[in-house]
Amino acid sequence: MIITTKPGPLFCAMSKPRAISSVAGLAAHGLVPSVQLKALAKVEENFSTRLTPEVLKQIKSADFTDPLFRQYVPSANELNVLADELADPTGDGAHSKVKGIIHRYQDRLLLTPTHTCQVYCRFCFRRETVGKSAAMLSTAELSTAFAYIAAQPQIHEVILSGGDPLVLSDRRLKEIMQQLAAIAHVQVIRIHTRVPLVEPTRITPALLKILSVRPAVYVAVHVNHAAELSQTVCKSLKRLTRAGIPLLSQTVLLKGVNDDAEILATLFRALVANRVKPYYLHHLDRAKGTSHFRVSIKRGQEIMRSLRGKLSGIAQPTYVIDIPGGFGKVPIGPDYVSETPGGAYEIADPSGRRHHYRDKT
Ligand code: SF4
Q1: What's the pLDDT score for residue 58?
Q2: How far is the CA of 315 from the centre of ligand 1 (A)?
Q3: For the chain, which residues score pLDDT lower than 50?
């Protein structure tokens, strides 16, 4: 669906730019037509909406061909819920040991101190929970979560996720980082966030100080299109890398946003140039009302095959799927090697030609 209105100036020169957190707010700024308000009110009953001033600046046209608009502006397509779409597509609930802890793998777990984000992505796999009130862990709940981690000596890595952990105040984040640092077997803290891209001013010297704790801190940024890497955003990434924080990226393969090898190649090259290692390309989870973003695995593999020839190894993410039901995340190809009768192999090169290979040991 194309909306013909182009957004006018979203903010008057004198006013402080503000986030928009409702469909009515989007309509007031010319980003959704008033004829859509009734349908979008129904979307709003189920799923949160929020766009930051940085995202609003990055939207170049008010239609679903714009990669930023498509990711953040609600659509009536979200009312189309398919039978196999799930409230908890990655099966987090099955692995929730105490409130705020998702412990699926042996040596690492997720700590989710908040379910609030700076933006609400229309395809989010946690869209049933993010943005709901009372979703922040209380001090007592956080203490229980730390006690759980402290009692599991095999936990090497704690992944702070949510919601977005960088929406927390400096005071609360400092407390979490220090509590985790005090657990001797926690060697790595990984923070999953969209904040450096959607609220770059949050990356302050005070925040960088909070992140300089004894465990190695990694930041994994969620980014889906090179149009998200404005100059302001690149500066925020630079502040993180200059502080010695390694950066990784996560990208979701999304129809109409980045389901194209050239678009992804541009994104991954730009990330590497900004010292961000492309880490995962996620196959879209089957969250409710997201079928308009879905790309087939076959198409995802074709794109990955094309990227193999185009991009240097450091710019290649791993294409992964979370198996519905909570059975974990696995790479889904494409495959380059197949065994032939007699113990030999056929190996495909980046352009698809197959080569015989005998594995002599
Ligand atoms: S920022 Fe992350 S957790 Fe929040 S809505 Fe977007 S994808 Fe979901």
Answers
A1: 95
A2: 23
A3: 1-6, 8-14
The tens digit of pLDDT for each residue in 234-248 reads 999 999 999 999 999
For a substitution probing ligand 1, which of 126, 191, 284 has the most ligand atoms within 8 Å of its CB? 126
With contact defined as beta carbons under 8 Å apart, do 338 and 332 qualify? no
Q: How far apart are CA 73 and CA 263, in angstroms?
A: 21
The strand ranges marked E within 183-246 are 188-193, 216-222
According to DSSP, the β-strands at 337-340 and 329-331 are: unpaired
- Residue 313 CB partners (closer than 8 Å, separation 6+): none
Q: Is the overall model pTM greater than 0.85, yes or no?
A: yes
Query: For tokens 């946690």, what's the residue?
Result: 126
Q: Are 219 and 188 in contact (CB under 8 A)?
A: no
Q: How far is the CA of 163 from the centre of ligand 1 (A)?
A: 6
Top mutation candidate among 68, 118, 119 for ligand 1, by most atoms within 8 Å of CB: 119
Specify the CATH superfamily of domain 92-330.
Answer: Aldolase class I (3.20.20.70)
Q: What is the pLDDT of residues 32-51, one digit of tens each?
A: 988 899 999 999 999 999 99
Q: How many distinct helices (H) and strands (E) make up the chain?
A: 11, 12
Query: Which residues sit with their C-beta closer than 6 Å to ligand 1?
Result: 117, 119-121, 124, 126, 130, 162-164, 194, 222
Domain boundaries, the chain: 23-79, 92-330
